[in-house]
Amino acid sequence: MLTREQLKAVRKIQIRTSHLVSDVFAGQYHSVFKGRGMEFAEVRLYQPGDDVRTIDWNVTARTGVPHVKRFAEERELTVMLLVDASASTYFGSVRLLKSALAAELAALFAFSAITNNDKVGLVIFTDRLELALPPRKGTRHVLRVIREVLSIRPAGTRTDVAAALEHLEKVTKRRSVVFVLSDFLDPGCKRALAVAARRHDVIAVVLDDPREADLPPVGLVELEDAESGERYVADTGSAAVREAFAGAAAAARTARDRMLRSADVDAIVVDTARPYTQALLRFFRMRERRQ
């Protein structure tokens, strides 16, 4: 049962993302994510300018009048949202927790999908499968997706992207558009991403927070790794300590980005400190140029 605050959060996300879908993203989504191909629609009389390669010679021979085949895009897609609920996503130093950012983005992708008559499914994971909803259409289903992402109380704390992708392979019969929303603190997921990308259109939505890249000079602080529980004390008043932390963080992000590229997965990097609209628009433009 959702609390009153969670219900308000669901409603707020619905209003905000529905507005963005109708004003900005629905058309971009439709142009970037294509259906499974072209399917036969009808045969009609040949008209000047029609491509001669579409002539239906059987019907033309039978009627004595040139006819052409007309095809239509087989539009319907399945969109799968794989949402990381590990302990590290319950962190945010500016506007939002990474988990809240993931919920809003999941809603945006889901509303864009149903606006284009596509199905939406959900997998919430940590180091285990926390929840799975099969793909369906409709606003009621999307609202349930948002509610589940906001209200999940995960049993696991660590991240296992590979296990979530392996579950996806077991339950999906057709090619899907797969958004993996995670901070990708799982160095062992490269192979699973590469395998999934050979069958599906996989997009990594990378959740970042600026405090994970640098430390403020506030003296001695105790830091805790959210996933392992390991604690250590850092002297943030030391410039050398801050520089070492920033260098290690930059190296980790570079390795993560290299891993995603080598797995042949497109990435959208979003930050809890900044609106995500520009990052999404850059992604859509990049995909349009590629097509």
Outline the structure in words.
With 291 residues, the protein is α/β, with parallel strands linked by helices. Helix 1 packs across helix 4 (139-151), helix 1 runs parallel beside helix 8 and helix 5 (161-171) runs parallel beside helix 6 (190-199). It is 43% helix and 24% strand. The protein has 8 helices and 10 strands. The chain has 2 domains: 4-29 and 76-290, Rossmann fold (3-Layer(aba) Sandwich); 40-73, no CATH class. The protein has helices at 4-32, 57-63, 98-115, 139-151, 161-171, 190-199, 239-262, 277-290, and strands at 37-45, 67-74, 78-84, 119-125, 129-136, 177-182, 201-208, 220-224, 231-235, 266-271.
List the uncertain runs.
Answer: none
The total number of structural domains is 2
The CATH first-level class of the largest domain comes to Alpha Beta
Give the CATH H-level superfamily of the largest domain: von Willebrand factor, type A domain
Percent helix range = 40-55%
Percent of residues in beta strands: 15-25%
Major sheet: size, sense and barrel closure? 6 strands, mixed
Look at the structure and give the mean pLDDT.
89
Give the total of beta strands.
10
Oligomer: single chain
Using the coordinates shown, work out and report the CATH topology of the largest domain: Rossmann fold
The arrangement of helices and strands along the chain is HEHEEHEEHHEHEEEHEH
| CA distance, first residue to last residue | 44 Å
Given helix and strand content, the structural type is alpha/beta
Shape descriptor reads elongated
Report the CATH architecture of the largest domain: 3-Layer(aba) Sandwich
Which radius of gyration do the C-alpha atoms yield?
A: 23 Å
